[in-house]
Design a protein that fits this description.
By secondary structure, the chain is of the alpha/beta class. The chain folds into two domains: about 200 residues, Rossmann fold (3-Layer(aba) Sandwich); about 120 residues, YaeB-like fold (2-Layer Sandwich), CATH 3.30.2310. Helix 9 links the parallel strand 4 and strand 5. Helix 3 crosses helix 4, helix 8 packs parallel to helix 9 and helix 8 runs parallel beside helix 11. It is elongated.
Length: about 400
């Protein structure tokens, strides 16, 4: 079985190169003080640290290039875990995929680059992911970084699991705060989590636990909207009965907390693959509902459709129905041509947007609805849903 191995990255590879009896005592203090800073921040506030990091980087590279297996494992917590996973036979990892998760800091980036260079030189398929703002510098940066990480996990891991990869979280390295979150995240995503006792070379394996999510407290429409990239807030009044731990609340408005997003990612397939959900500002024509019930619309298509409908609905709310302001990532465009379509509308009055890269799409049209004598609201009527040619020929 192939593996997807995700390793959290700390800075032990650098700090282990400080020679306590030779190097100035302030090196350790300066490295600790700048552990959560970016390259730019260090250059501005602690310019002398740049030279220290460069020196430690060169020492670490030399150790990795010239050291034996035992020395390399002692030098890097991350590599200690990887060597332990493969029982010191890295040749067993050639067909596996490795990702290094580093914080958005100068030291972690240098460490990740060194680890990637070493692993690639040993034939391992290795990439680096750095969530924006992820650091333990402050609560806001940390929360935003974890949110980015959760989105990335949801985009990455399901595809590998569907292709029978074993998902392994290597949490031997990394900052303690990030390790703590990664451990909880791993309980949902990983087939196993590995650690190593301090001073040991034997790995400890924690198998995936049978976690069950109580979906009765989840509101699918509201959660899907809050999970969208439109970054909208919902009124707290619409989330009554939802546990506060799943929500981030400010002035009676809410969006998903990190734990809320993690929970949603792990139950959305169950909730978004049944009947059509009614999202704000969207109206489903009979033709659209009929398309949804076609035999070739499987669970994955229903999931993809609901997620893009949530994005469209959130954008309708955010821009008050002005579709010209929609983000380009939605690929929301107007058809060309004058021919008449069903319902007596012209083709160049109809919009469409893509679901994914394989051509499936949705056709729709904006219509105004009178709320009162003075107030009108724009609604988006969904007309057809399906393959490229099917929708293009029947917009």
């Amino acid at each position: 079985m192939h593996r997807l191995v995700i390793s959290t990255v700390g800075t032990s590879l650098l700090t282990n190169q400080i020679r306590l009896r030779v190097d100035p005592k302030k090196w350790t203090e300066l490295i600790d003080r700048t552990a959560n800073l970016t390259q730019e921040q260090i250059s501005y506030s602690f310019p002398e640290v740049i030279e220290i990091i460069t020196e430690l980087e060169q020492r670490a590279k030399k150790k990795l290039d010239e050291g034996n297996t035992l020395e390399i494992r002692d030098t890097s917590a991350e590599l200690n875990g990887i060597y332990g996973l493969y029982k010191e036979q890295l040749s067993q990892a050639y067909q596996d995929i490795h990702w290094l998760i580093a914080s958005d800091t100068a030291q972690a980036k240098v460490t990740a680059d060194l680890l990637q260079l070493f692993l690639k030189s040993n034939g391992l398929n290795t990439s680096i992911y750095i969530p924006k703002q992820l650091s333990t510098n402050c609560n806001e940066d940390f929360a935003n970084g974890i949110d980015e990480l959760l989105k990335w996990f949801e985009e990455l891991i399901p595809g590998y699991r569907d292709n029978s990869y074993e998902i392994c979280f290597n949490l031997v390295g990394g900052f303690k705060a990030i390790q703590g979150f990664a451990n909880t995240i791993g309980m949902f995503y990983a087939d196993k989590i590995i650690y190593i006792f301090e001073g040991s070379k034997e790995i400890i394996t924690i198998p995936r636990l049978p976690i069950t999510i109580d979906t009765s407290v989840i509101k699918p429409v509201e959660f899907a909207l809050m999970a969208s990239d439109a970054d909208i807030w919902m009124p707290l009044s619409e989330l009554q009965g939802v546990r506060e731990s799943l929500l981030f609340i400010v002035d009676q408005e809410v969006k998903l907390s990190n734990w809320g997003r993690l929970t949603w990612n792990n139950c959305k397939r169950e909730l978004l693959t049944k009947d059509l959900l009614q999202f704000p500002r969207l109206v489903y024509d009979q033709s659209f509902e009929k398309d949804y019930k076609r035999k070739n619309v499987d669970a994955q298509r229903k999931l993809e459709l609901h997620e893009v409908l949530a994005e469209i609905s959130a954008s309708m709310l955010k821009f008050n129905g002005n579709t010209t302001l929609f983000d380009s990532r939605l690929h929301f465009t107007r058809y060309e041509g004058q021919q008449r379509c069903e319902g007596g509308v012209k083709k160049n009055e109809i919009d469409h947007f893509y679901m994914n890269n394989d051509g499936w799409r949705v056709s729709c049209i904006v219509k105004q609805k009178d709320i009162s004598e003075k107030e009108k609201i724009k609604l988006l009527h969904m007309r057809h849903f399906g393959e490229h040619d099917y929708v293009n020929d029947n917009p």
